[in-house]
């Protein structure tokens, strides 16, 4: 599915947080949002996945007008892995992941064999099979993050929004999560902080500064020393990482 968010404007109180941003994610593309803390990435994503009402703008997933469609219908197509996943009540990991099936069920419909099979597959993809019966609240931050991804995979979305999905994760799991998402072969819009990961996994990038698009293009076009220095107010040198053959970055103040 293709996502088009057009001319998005978001104000919180009197402050303009997002200023006329347009984003295009073509079919099966992995598109990244980068930019410094507080530049507006999460706010923009929240307005795209209906957690926040934008002041202006439209969001279409193919021909589905997201902002004018019911939550349930949107959830059948759009999955979200957010930044904070705190919950007050406890469920097992399997029950948590089963919640991903909710948008596909009628009210009070019980879990079918097919739902259990989908949950099992999501647990396998995220390496969580051994955690199936553990209590969600007893998990570490990184383990919880993987459960949330598994729940989103069980939702079988056609498009995924990720807000710093590798928060809390050690390097191995950062790679595993992004690999896992990439393997789904669906459109993805993800806010990422790690520029090497963004260079490696993204087909296209939008660099956000002060609530507006500062630069956009392929990772090679966007991740230049000049753009990174302007975005983050640091010194930066780019190089070809001899191990990964991808873009590498050396930073200083
Ligand atoms: N509910 C709110 N009330 C007031 N200001 C808010 C609110 N939500 C967000 N903001 C402000 O909007 C700006 C953008 O925040 P946002 O979380 O979108 O940034 P971000 O780019 O995702 O940052 P980070 O990389 O730190 O997650 C920040 O200055 C933040 O303080």
Written account of the structure:
This protein has nine helices and twelve strands. The protein is of the alpha/beta class. It has one domain: P-loop containing nucleotide triphosphate hydrolases (Rossmann fold, 3-Layer(aba) Sandwich), CATH 3.40.50.300. α4 crosses α5. The protein is globular. The model has no long low-confidence stretch (mean pLDDT 93). Bound molecules: adenosine-5'-triphosphate. Adenosine-5'-triphosphate (ATP) binds next to α1. The site of adenosine-5'-triphosphate (ATP) has 10 residues, from α1.
Index terms:
binds adenosine-5'-triphosphate; six-stranded mixed β-sheet; 253 residues; 9 helices
Question: What is the element layout, followed by pairings?
Answer:
Blueprint lengths: L2 E10 L2 E11 L4 E5 L6 H8 L7 E6 L2 E2 L5 H5 L2 E4 L11 H6 L14 H13 L15 H14 L4 E5 L7 H13 L3 E5 L3 H7 L2 E6 L2 E6 L1 H4 L2 H8 L2 E6 L6 E6 L1
Parallel strand pairs: 3-8, 3-9, 6-7, 7-8
Antiparallel strand pairs: 1-2, 1-4, 4-5, 9-10, 11-12
Helix pairs in contact: 4-5
The site of adenosine-5'-triphosphate has 10 residues, from α1.
InterPro entries: AAA+_ATPase (IPR003593), ABC_transporter-like_ATP-bd (IPR003439), ABC_transporter-like_CS (IPR017871), P-loop_NTPase (IPR027417)
Pfam family, one: ABC_tran
GO molecular function, one term: ATP hydrolysis activity
């Amino acid at each position: 599915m293709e996502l088009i968010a057009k001319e998005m404007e978001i104000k919180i109180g009197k402050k303009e947080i997002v200023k006329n941003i347009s984003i295009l994610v073509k079919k099966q593309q992995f598109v990244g949002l980068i930019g410094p803390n507080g530049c507006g990435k999460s706010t923009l994503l929240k307005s795209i996945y209906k957690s926040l009402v934008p002041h202006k703008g439209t969001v279409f997933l193919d021909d589905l007008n997201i902002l004018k469609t019911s939550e349930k219908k949107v959830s059948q197509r759009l999955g979200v892995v957010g930044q904070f996943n705190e919950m007050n009540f406890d469920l097992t990991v399997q029950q948590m992941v089963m919640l991903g099936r909710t948008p596909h069920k009628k009210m009070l419909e019980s879990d079918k064999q097919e739902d259990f099979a989908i949950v099992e597959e999501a647990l396998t993809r995220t390496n969580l099979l051994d955690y199936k019966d553990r209590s969600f609240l007893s998990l570490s931050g990184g383990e919880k993050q993987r459960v949330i991804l598994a729940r989103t995979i069980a939702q079988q979305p056609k498009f995924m929004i990720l807000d710093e999905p590798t928060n809390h994760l050690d390097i191995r799991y950062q790679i595993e999560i992004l690999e896992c998402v990439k393997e789904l072969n669906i459109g993805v819009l993800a806010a990422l902080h790690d520029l090497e990961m963004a260079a490696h996994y993204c087909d296209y990038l939008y660099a956000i500064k002060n609530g507006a698009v500062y630069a956009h293009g392929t990772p090679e076009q966007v991740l230049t020393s000049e753009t990174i220095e302007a975005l983050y107010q640091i010194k930066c040198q780019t190089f070809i990482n001899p191990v990964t053959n991808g873009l590498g970055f050396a930073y200083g103040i």
